[in-house]
Amino acid sequence: MSSSSKIQKVWVPVRAPTAFNQVELPRIMSQSIEAALNRRITVSLSDITGDIRQVQLFLKFRVIDVTGGVARTRFDQLELAREFVRGLSRRGTTKTEAVSDVSTRDGALVRVFVVAVTRGKIHRSKRTAVRALAYQILEEKANKLGFDQFTQEIVLGKAAAEIFAASRKIASINTLEIRKVKVLRPPTPGFAAEELAAPPEVSGENTAEDANARPTESYEKSGVNEEADPAQT
After folding, report:
1. C-alpha to C-alpha distance for 171 and 4, rounded to whole angstroms
2. Which residues pair with 94 in a beta bridge?
3. pLDDT per position as a tens digit, 45-103
4. What is the dihedral sign for C-alpha 86, 218, 135, 194?
5. pLDDT in tens, 99-143
6. Most CB within 10 Å of its CB: which of 33, 48, 175, 199?
7. What is the pTM of this model?
8. Side-chain-side CA neighbours of residue 134 (13 Å)
9. Contact of 108 with 198, CB cutoff 8 Å
10. Per residue, what are the HEC states of 50-94?
């Protein structure tokens, strides 16, 4: 095959969404600029923030538009590294998981996986109460915030911190993490920006500054224990 018949590929620059300050992401190789549409890019949070302590948190962005030779993306998924999760498992703990589908103010549908770990056994009724509380907090937060704002609350650990602080009133929670987030439906195109200009107050009774709530250290020090749980949702 002659060299003239080979497909010429191009490197396409990629930018993160506005919620992530449109930082530069790793370039992708594509047969054409247009072919880059719908591609996904995976990076660790440390690649964006420069903080090596956040290397275990991975973000996926999907290319939604290519303008001026630069690919624009939206947030598509979050997941804690499996090795990090397994490394924090310990005997004598109980893991409670909650899976919540919530809708943001601008129409996005997001599935959020929460895991809470306690020392020793925990009564089933308390596990049910923790699951219900996690869903309640996430639903209220999503209903008040747009997709970008909700994403920031999740990635920065603020949502996990609020659930953690409230859950400790139910059971002796040792660790609570949002271990995975999936976007099931993107925000509604053309949603009126003024409708998101002044969202209601989201701090409520429990804030990210409450005792034992660690919004930025959540992914640094507290983990997800992956021991078997007979009552997973």
Report:
1. 68
2. 118
3. 999 988 898 999 999 999 999 999 999 999 999 999 888 776 656 778 888 889 999 99
4. negative
5. 999 999 999 999 999 998 888 888 999 999 999 999 999 999 999
6. 175
7. 0.76
8. 28
9. no
10. CCHHHCCEEEEEEEEEEECCEEEEEEEEEEECHHHHHHCCCCCEE
